[in-house]
Amino acid sequence: MTTIDAPARTVGGPDIVQERRLVTSIPGPLSRALMTRKTDAVAAGVGATLPVFAAAAGGGVVVDVDGNSLIDLGSGIAVTGVGNSHPRVVEAVKAQLDAFTHTCFTITPYESYVAVAEALNRLTPGDHLKRSALFNSGAEAVENAVKIARHHTGRQAVVAFDHAYHGRTNLTMGLTAKNQPYKNGFGPFAPEIYRAPLSYPFRDGGIDGVTAARTAILQIEKQIGAENLAALIIEPIQGEGGFIVPAAGFLPTLLEWSRANGVVFIADEVQSGFGRTGAWFASEHEGIVPDLVVTAKGIAGGLPLSAVTGRADIMDAAQVGGLGGTYGGNPLACVAALAAIESYASEGLIERAGDIGRLLIDRLTALQASDPRIGDVRGRGAMIAIELVDPETDAPDAALTARVASAAHAQGVIVLTCGTYGNVIRFLPPLTIGDDLLTEGLDVIAEALATA
Ligand SMILES: *Cc1c(COP(=O)(O)O)cnc(C)c1O
Predict the structure, then answer these.
(1) 3-state class of 71 per DSSP?
(2) Is residue 1 over pLDDT 50?
(3) Rounded to two decimals, what is the model's pTM?
(4) Which CATH superfamily is domain 13-72+348-451 in?
(5) How far is the CA of 271 from the centre of ligand 1 (A)?
(6) DSSP secondary structure, 175-214, as one string
(7) Ligand 1 atom 15: the closest Cα is on which residue?
(8) Mean of the pLDDT values across residues 79-103?
(9) Same CATH topology for 13-72+348-451 and 89-346?
């Protein structure tokens, strides 16, 4: 078909000027026209946070089809940690395109897949013998982690936690906590999934982590029985659930109990991994060494790739042919991952995430001091959030949150919300973003809060 209203095209990557610049109102006329086509052509269930269409992106800036430059504080949900269209990633993918696009690793394997597995085995917590398997999406990797844990243990039950988000496929919808919009009307869900209470310091009265874990463990023992439990899956810092950082001691106590009971401990680091929190993996902040680690999002600089990495005896349990898929560990995604991993390591991006975190926390706690609607400022590294509440009661204020986010969007700042109660604004900038751009983005948020 012909393209009407041909959008402006710009070359992305390092040539994109790192600035916020609005040349039309948001959305501009070309984005509005494309949104009409989207409504007519794309299923309504596939939403869009912003009403603008992207034409190009580089580093921490997205340029829309009308020529507006937006500050990216979302990284496409923690994906472009190395910055959008990072030159190293672009170069690697271009070279791979010239070599071959696909063979299927389970037909004729290729080196880049093995090299990604080696890197994951080296970088994930613990120096034990490990293996990895690659997939396409976070949800697919979570599904495979559960498959592997069930095969290894010969048990069926799986525990996930309150506020958890693990994806939108059938099994992962079951693991995900929040009904709207993720589960409503999509049942029945897979059996043998159970939910346990989480440590949520802002809303549980500040119960210490060990006590909160003991409460969860007691519930698991009484309602399921450890002998039936294949795996416990948890995000070390929750993503969609609201950037909830459990109290110190919560994760180690759960891990210790899992070990003692032959339960596979799965850390879902899909959002928190790859330098995001100021360490390669968020598990490191609590000193835990999970049995299996699930990764995706930040792994490959924007290409679709995910992985399960873990103890060799668990990972090797499944029979040949039991794991895999047509595209899992696609060669373009694998070379992109190797390039991204090289960038995280050689460009000091893990340390940079810590600096970004300090800047965010300083600014947001200063805002909080004069604005009691900011109930909580939390997170680690470049994974920071504010929870907006009614100052009198601490009741979640989702309406205020939506107003602040859309005011920021209208001013050219891409910012995302999250949380079970829809009242959390989360900051996930690319780790390559400059202080100037980040500060300008926060100025816009502050202004949006002041006027909302
Ligand atoms: C995004 C996410 C997933 C699902 O990943 P997809 O690639 O969207 O399937 C799973 N777990 C966590 C913690 C996530 O943030």
Answers:
(1) strand
(2) no
(3) 0.97
(4) Aspartate Aminotransferase, domain 1 (3.90.1150.10)
(5) 7
(6) H----TTTTTT--PPPSSEEEEPPP-TTTTTT--HHHHHH
(7) 271
(8) 98
(9) no
**What pLDDT does 6 receive?**
45
Q: Render pLDDT for 329-374 as a digit per residue (tens, 0 to 9).
A: 999 999 999 999 999 999 999 999 999 999 999 999 999 999 999 9
Using the atom order of ligand 1, give the atom closest to the CA of residue 139: 9
Architecture of domain 89-346: 3-Layer(aba) Sandwich (3.40)
pLDDT-derived band at 404, boundaries 50, 70, 90:
very high
What was the pLDDT predicted at 3? 47
Q: Which residues line ligand 1 (CB under 6 A)?
A: 137-139, 142, 165-167, 235, 239-240, 268, 270-271, 296
Average pLDDT over residues 21-47: 98
Residue bearing the CA closest to ligand 1, atom 5: 138
Q: Would you kindly state where each structural domain of the chain is located, as residue ranges? A: 13-72+348-451, 89-346
Residue 300, CA distances (Å) to 81, 217, 348, 377 in order:
9, 36, 17, 29
For the chain, how many helices (H) and strands (E)? 13, 15
